[in-house]
Amino acid sequence: MNPKFVLPNFIILIVLFSCIVAICSAEILFTDSEGNQLTFPGPAEKLVCLNSDSAEMVVALGAGEKIIGLADSVMSDTALMAHIPNAVSVGNWQTPNFEKVLELKPDAVISYSSSKPKNSDQFLNAGINLTYLDCYRINTLDHDVKALGTLLGASDRADVYVKFKDKWQNLVSSRVANLAPDQIPSVYIEGYSDYSANGKGSGVDQELDVARGKNIAASLGEQWPKVTAEWVLSQNPDVIIKAVSLKPDKTLEQVRDGILHRSGFETLSAVKNNQVYALNGDLAYGPRSPAGLIYVAKALHPSLFKDIYPDDVLKEYADTFVSGVEKGEYYYPVL
C-alpha cells in the first residue's frame, strides 16, 4: 500500500469521526417537572407555551422570539407580549387547539405538570410529547429554569436568574432563621376562588415556608382544598393572604375590602389587626415570585424587613430579565 494514500485516508476518517461526535453531542437531555428525562436533537427554536409562567421564563432567558404559539390568557398580557413578536393564539390553555399546534410544527410544547391539558391524549397520539415545566413554584424554580435553559441553549442566562432568585430567598431565610415558635403567625392563604385554600406544597405555601408562617390549611391533605367560612372562623388566622387573578373591573383594594366584609370575619384576628393582604397572582407565582416572597415576608414580619421593598425586587427583575413588567397593580396594601 502506498503510504502517500494512507495518511490522507486516516485524516479523512478522523474528520468524519469528529463530525459524528459533534452531531451526537448536539443532543440535549434534561428532566421535566414530572421527573421525565427528555431528549431533543438540539436546542429548540420553535416553542408553543400553554402556561404563562413558562412563556415568561422563556422571555426572561432572552428567547421570546422563539415562542410561536401561546394560550389566550398569555396573549392579553401586553407587557409580556412586547417581548414575544412571533406568537399566535392556540386557544385555551386547558384545551388548546390541537390542529393549530400541529400546523405550527413546534420543537416543543410546554405545559403545566400540575394542570395538564384535557386533550393531552391528542398530542401523544400524534407523536407530540408535551414538555412539563411549571416555572411557578419558588421551590422548583431553580430546576425548571435550568431545564428550560438547557432546552433553549441558554444555560448561562438561566444561571443568572437562579442567582437573582437565590439572593432574595436566602436574604429572607437568614432574617427569619432565629424566630421563636410564638413569633410565627398562622396564615390563611386563599386562591383565586373564594374559600379555595392553598394547602401544603402550593405556590404561596412554599413562600410561607421560607418566610416562616404557619399555613392553617397545610394539614388538609390537598394542595388546593375547598374550605368554608365556618372553617376559617374556627381557625382564626393571624394573617390572611388572598391571591388574585386581576380583572379590569375590580382593584386589589376592592378584593381586600370584600374579604374584610365577609359575614363573621370581623371577629378574626387578621381583620381586627389589619393583617389582610391581596397579592396579584403574577407576583405570588412564577418568575416574578421573588418579589412576591418579599411582600409575604414583610406582611408576616414587618419589623424584620423595614429596609426592603417588593418594588425594588420587581424593578431589578424588570431591568435584568423582562422590561415593562414593573408597571402594574401587584399588591394591596402597599408595604
UniProtKB/TrEMBL annotation:
Which residues does UniProt assign to the signal peptide? Answer: none
The UniProt entry, under PROSITE patterns, shows: FE_B12_PBP, PROKAR_LIPOPROTEIN
Which chain regions cross the lipid bilayer?
none
- Looking at the record, the residues that make up the Fe/B12 periplasmic-binding domain are 46-308
What's the name of the protein? ABC transporter substrate-binding protein
This chain's source organism reads Methanospirillum lacunae
- Give the organism's phylogenetic lineage: Archaea, Methanobacteriati, Methanobacteriota, Stenosarchaea group, Methanomicrobia
